[in-house]
Design goal:
The structure is a single chain. By secondary structure, this protein is mainly alpha-helical. Helices cover about 55% and strands about 0% of the residues. Helix 1 runs antiparallel to helix 2 and helix 1 packs across helix 4. The chain is elongated, with a radius of gyration of 26 Å. It starts with about 35 loop residues before the first helix and ends with a helix.
Length: about 170
């Protein structure tokens, strides 16, 4: 009996999902990529954590705490530059573009330029953002907007109260 091959038989080879290749997020590195939401969330998150801890240390330790706060500022600056270099890599630019951090309005490009779809010369993209990263990334502009609105309305409200108090005294 001849070895009969059924042309309608399912393939016998194992087939795996190719999937999109991603690289892990490396917080303490200048290589790799980081997207806009992570850049915003990690940058401000690190800032708040370091400054909260340094503020507590400055209050508890006096002058030694102030020195610790200066060290914390330097650490936040270095980590911010490292994140910005990764952000530059995300839109396929050299890390030297991170020097725009010192230009007041030009540094906003890191929040608005979208990253490269798929791999680029700096590697594969990072995995999709978690819900926590997205919530934190959207919370920062919301808090900034609330702060701007408060800065505009509170002085006007205080002036209104002052004028209404003068009217009632007459």
């Amino acid at each position: 009996m001849a070895n009969h091959v059924n042309p309608y038989q399912a393939p016998a080879a194992t087939v795996a999902d190719a999937g999109d290749e991603t690289q892990p997020v490396r917080l303490l590195s200048i290589s790799g990529r980081i997207g806009r939401a992570r850049y915003l969330a990690f940058g401000f998150g690190l800032y708040f954590v370091f400054m909260f801890a340094a503020g507590i240390a400055a209050g508890a330790l006096g002058e030694a705490g102030v020195a610790l706060m200066v060290v914390a500022w330097a650490a936040v600056a270095v980590l911010g530059i490292m994140l910005t270099i990764q952000r530059c890599h995300d839109f396929n630019m050299s890390g030297w573009l991170s020097l725009l951090l010192i230009v007041p309005i030009a540094n906003l490009i890191f929040l608005f330029i979208p990253g490269t779809d798929g791999p680029n010369r700096f590697g594969a993209p990072t995995p999709p953002n978690s819900v926590g990263v997205l919530i934190f990334a959207w919370l920062i502009p919301a808090v900034a907007l609330i702060g701007i609105i408060a800065a505009i309305t509170l002085p006007a409200y205080q002036e209104y109260q002052k004028r209404s108090g003068q009217v009632q005294q007459r």
